[in-house]
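Cont'd.
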Amino acid sequence: MVCVLRTIGLFLLAGSAGAFAQTAQGLTANDVIQRIQAHVGVPWRTPTVDTFKAGDPATRVTGIAVTMMATYDVLVRAAASGDNLIISHEPTFYSHLDKTAGFEQQHDAVWAQKEQFIREHHLVVWRFHDHWHMHRPDGILTGVVRTLKWQAYQSQTEPSLFVVPEMTLADLASQMKDRLGINVLRVVGDPAMKVTRVSLAPGASGPEHHQMLLHRDHPDVLAIGEVPEWETIEYIADASAEGRHEALILLGHIPSEQAGMEYCTEWLKTFVNEVKVEFVPAKEFFWLAK
Amino acid sequence: MVCVLRTIGLFLLAGSAGAFAQTAQGLTANDVIQRIQAHVGVPWRTPTVDTFKAGDPATRVTGIAVTMMATYDVLVRAAASGDNLIISHEPTFYSHLDKTAGFEQQHDAVWAQKEQFIREHHLVVWRFHDHWHMHRPDGILTGVVRTLKWQAYQSQTEPSLFVVPEMTLADLASQMKDRLGINVLRVVGDPAMKVTRVSLAPGASGPEHHQMLLHRDHPDVLAIGEVPEWETIEYIADASAEGRHEALILLGHIPSEQAGMEYCTEWLKTFVNEVKVEFVPAKEFFWLAK
């Protein structure tokens, strides 16, 4: 990251002349990331997980695939479509910090095949997580709200709070499932309960963040990506058992943030037009046993 | 815990005379825990989460409720049944270490009502997690295997590995769902894939443990309680996309370990017979949106 940060200054100093030089020679992955850093609207923070995870940043970009999670399936589809820069919201190598030493040590075949595919197709994978959330408004939330068609219900002061037309919890869950295109959506609480205040916390923002939203905004429903069962899930189950007007919707991590990366694709196109920029959705992982 | 550990010695020195004295006066919660410590068959390890979480350890026990998770619903049912010592495998207060300071500071109503119910009903809650897993054989695994009726398929050298009669992944998932009484069981992998080697890791044993099982035992299917999507879930999805013969079954945390606490109830009855000892199952949290 130090290297990338140092070159931002040079890029900014170079201005439009630098941009022209890049166009003439072809954009590198590094050029694209520098443009993102210049456009994201917040100072670049370190440490951050928004770093290159695989491939050579000096690679000339043939096409950009924006995705929620750089799964093997996403990489295959991106490469087949002629993309070689993959911008992923979530990890590539199975942990928040994408540490690969353990897999290397174990000669792990799954990891090795993914690395090999990346190498053979000259792919570059870069993560765009922290700063897309830090973008104002939060890039993930913005995309998700648009796909939910909930813009009119969004609080002006607390963007994660929505006051939707009153409906049952079961109907709200079905609406979110339909609009976000979710296969498996789990719910905790009374299905018949009437709800109108919804706090939306896509991804895995953690029990402390969930508690903050619950205490500050008093929603009827907290809708999140995922959390361990013994944390917010047990808490809301208890609230419900105590007779409180509270429920939890677990959208799943990928479906809860995916639309935010579709929006990121459009945002990226506003300042990268030399190469194709496309959204390659990650598939939801789960099916249900009968 | 220091206090409890110190008194174990006294209890053991006192021998059967001590046991008689307890019977005459009525067993305290502390007496019961000391008996568990004396019978569990492994040295008591510290630090451990196996500590009192609420109530007064000197309380005379009227009945013991053994459960997977001391939810509010479980406490209400236990108290209604005349139990005042609750032995829970999982946390009571929404985090692995059951820290309550944050809830107290926030005047959290859900936590406060649970605390109040415990106080008003003179309940004592004690966690039995680490040492029930350390019991040989692992108390949780033993109970789950019995409920799955998989004893004949269990590896003699690696107790978490099972070689079941060949069937499809979809059929295996349905069998586990039926036998463990699960409502929502999620699966990753090809439903039509033929499977026979199954690694069973109930609860949330973590991605490092999952990796160890995968590398050591090469199962077709890893069946776990829960894990974040970007860890073992993405890994198995990648393995499947790479064409490997690997799948993941997510049983849910509570259903994946619950039978292990049913077995704990029976084990406890072998050395606690002065009071009623009963299994109070925690309800599965989830229902599915349509």
